[in-house]
Design a protein that fits this description.
Layout (H helix, E strand, L loop, with lengths): L3 E4 L6 E4 L5 E4 L7 E2 L2 E8 L10 E7 L2 E6 L11 H15 L8 H9 L4 H4 L4 H13 L9 H10 L14 E6 L4 E5 L2 H8 L3 E7 L11 E9 L2 E10 L4 H15 L6 E3 L4 H7 L7 H9 L3 H6 L1 H11 L6 H17 L3 H14 L20 H14 L6 H23 L10 H18 L6 H5 L1
Parallel strand pairs: 10-13
Antiparallel strand pairs: 1-2, 2-3, 3-5, 4-5, 5-6, 6-7, 8-9, 9-12, 10-11, 11-12
Helix pairs in contact: 1-2, 1-4, 7-8, 9-11, 11-12, 12-13, 14-15
Organism: Frankliniella fusca
Protein name: 14.5 kDa early protein
Length: about 450
C-alpha cells in the first residue's frame, strides 16, 4: 500500500495515511534506529486521544521503498473526506495572508468553500476557522503596542503597516497628544484632498469597532455624501472624548488639509464634540424617548390629536431658526385649547430647558440642509463594523478594515468624477417625503398660504 502524507496542524508535523480512510500520527513512544539503510516507523491513529482509538500501523523503510503494515485494528470509523477537508482549511489559511488578506473571515471562508464540493465545505465552520485565520494574519505583524502613543510610533517607523491597499498612499496621518489623551489619525492624502473640497461634513463616533488593544474609548469617523453615495474620509482612534481632545484632533486635521473650511458639519449632541465643531445636527429620537420616560406613550396610542402634538415637536427643526420659537408657542397654545396642557407640562418644560435654550437651540435647526439626520454617519459606522467582522476587533483587523474603507472611497470618488452611477435610486418614500417638506416650506414662507401650526402637523 502506498504511503501518503499531509501537513499536520503543528509546524513540522505530518499525518500519514494509505487511502483506507484512517489517518495516523507519528508514535513517539518508540525508540527508532536505522540498520544498513532499513528502519521502522510506528504510527498511531490520530483519534487516539479524542476517541480512544487503538489503531496502529507500521511503515518499514527498505532500500527498495516503503512497506505499510496495519497492526492493531481501529475502533473509530474511517473518514473518507478528511484529506479534502484539511486541504480546504490549509487553503483558507494560505489565502488569509495572500489574496484574501483584506477579506473578513466570513468572506474568505465562503469564497474558498465555494471551490469545494458541498459535502466537504459543510464540514468547515466559521467558528472553527476564525481563530486560526486571525493567528495566521497576526503572524504577519509585530506585537500589538501597549498604548496609542506607541502605536503612532510603530506606524511612523513601519509605513507598510498602514499603506493603502493599492500601495499608492498611506493612511497614518499623525498622532495628536494632549496632557491626558492620545489620538491616532488615519486619513490618506487622497481623502485629505477630498475633504478639502467638502462643504458638508458628517462626523460621528462609534464604540463597537474600536480595537480591543491598545485601549481606546472610541473611533471618530468623518464622511461626506457624493451623489447619494457615502464616502468615509477618515478615522481617529481616541483615548478619550473630552472637548480638549476633540479640539486638538480637529486642529490637527485642519493643518493636514490646509483648505478645510466646511459650511455645515453634522454631528451628534455631545457637548464636547459640538463645542469643537460648532456644528448642526438634529436628533428627534431624544424627544420621543422623553415622551416615553414621562409615561405619555399609552395616551399617545389612544388619542390621535395628542400623539400629533408630540410628533409636531419633532418637526420643529425643519423651521427656520427665527421661527422655531413661534412654532413651539403655537403647540403650547394648541395643547391648552384641547385640554392637554396638564399632561404635557413636564414634556414642554423639558423642551424649554433642554432644546429651546443654548447650546442645543443654536444647533437644532436643519432648515435648508441636504441631510437632516445622522443616518449617513450611522451607515458609515455600520460600514466600518461590517469590515472589521467582529465586535472590538484586533488592532490589525481594524487597520485592515480602515484600508478597505479607504480603497472603496477612492473607487467611489473616481466613479463620481467620471459620471458613473454610484448608488441605487432613493426610495420612493424618501423622495416623496422631501417633496412634501419642500412644498409645505414654500406654502409657509413664500406663498404664506398655511400657518406655522399647519406646517408642523
Amino acid at each position: 500500500m502506498a504511503v501518503q502524507t499531509i501537513k499536520g496542524k503543528r509546524e513540522g508535523t505530518n499525518i500519514y495515511f494509505n487511502g483506507d480512510g484512517f489517518y495516523y500520527h507519528f508514535n513517539n513512544q518508540y525508540q527508532y534506529g536505522h540498520n544498513e539503510g532499513q528502519g521502522e516507523v510506528y504510527l498511531r491513529c490520530k483519534q487516539h486521544y479524542n476517541r480512544g482509538c487503538h489503531g496502529t500501523a507500521k511503515v518499514t523503510i527498505r532500500d527498495v521503498g516503503l512497506q505499510w503494515e496495519n497492526l492493531t485494528p481501529h475502533t473509530c470509523a474511517p473518514d473518507r473526506s478528511f484529506v479534502q477537508v484539511q486541504l480546504l482549511k490549509q487553503q483558507v489559511l494560505r489565502e488569509a495572508v495572500n489574496n484574501g488578506r483584506y477579506e473578513t473571515p466570513a468572506e474568505l471562508l465562503e469564497r474558498v468553500q465555494n471551490m469545494y464540493p458541498i459535502e466537504i465545505a459543510a464540514q468547515v465552520s466559521l467558528d472553527g476557522m476564525r481563530s486560526a485565520i486571525q493567528r495566521a494574519r497576526a503572524a504577519m505583524y509585530p506585537p500589538v503596542p501597549p498604548d496609542l502613543h506607541r502605536l503612532g510610533q510603530l506606524l511612523q517607523a513601519h509605513p507598510h503597516l498602514a499603506a493603502s491597499i493599492d500601495g499608492r498612499d498611506n493612511l497614518y496621518a499623525g498622532t495628536v497628544v494632549t496632557p491626558r489623551t492620545t489620538s491616532v489619525v488615519f486619513m490618506s492624502m487622497r481623502m485629505r484632498r477630498a475633504l478639502a473640497r467638502t462643504s458638508h461634513i458628517l462626523c460621528d463616533a462609534t464604540f463597537a469597532s474600536r480595537p480591543n488593544d491598545p485601549q481606546a474609548r472610541q473611533v471618530l469617523q468623518f464622511s461626506k455624501v457624493v451623489n447619494r453615495a457615502i464616502i468615509p474620509l477618515g478615522q481617529v482612534l481616541m483615548s478619550g472624548k473630552t472637548q480638549a481632545e476633540y479640539t486638538a484632533v480637529l486642529q490637527h486635521i485642519r493643518q493636514l488639509v490646509g483648505q478645510l473650511n466646511p459650511t455645515v458639519v453634522m454631528t451628534d449632541f455631545e457637548v464636547g464634540l459640538q463645542n469643537a465643531w460648532k456644528a448642526v445636527f438634529p436628533n428627534a429620537q431624544a424627544v420621543l424617548k422623553k415622551a416615553r420616560e414621562l409615561g405619555l406613550v399609552p395616551f399617545m396610542n389612544q388619542h390621535r390629536r395628542f400623539k400629533s402634538l408630540i410628533c409636531c415637536v419633532c418637526a420643529l427643526p425643519l423651521l427656520p431658526q427665527a421661527v422655531i420659537g413661534r412654532g413651539f408657542n403655537t403647540l403650547i397654545q394648541e395643547a391648552t385649547r384641547r385640554g392637554y396642557i396638564q399632561l404635557l407640562n413636564g414634556f414642554f418644560n423639558y423642551m424649554i430647558d433642554t432644546w429651546m435654550t443654548d447650546p442645543l437651540f443654536s444647533t437644532m435647526c436643519v432648515y435648508g440642509q441636504p441631510h437632516r439626520t445622522n443616518n449617513v454617519s450611522e451607515s458609515c459606522n455600520r460600514m466600518l463594523r461590517s469590515r472589521t467582522g467582529a465586535h472590538r476587533p484586533g488592532l490589525w483587523n481594524f487597520l485592515t478594515a480602515v484600508r478597505r474603507l479607504e480603497q472603496r472611497a477612492v473607487i467611489t470618488l473616481h466613479a463620481a468624477q467620471h459620471g458613473y452611477p454610484l448608488a441605487r435610486a432613493r426610495k420612493v418614500s424618501a423622495v416623496n417625503n422631501d417633496m412634501r417638506i419642500m412644498n409645505y416650506t414654500r406654502l409657509l414662507l413664500v406663498d404664506r398660504e398655511i400657518s406655522i401650526n399647519r406646517f408642523l402637523h
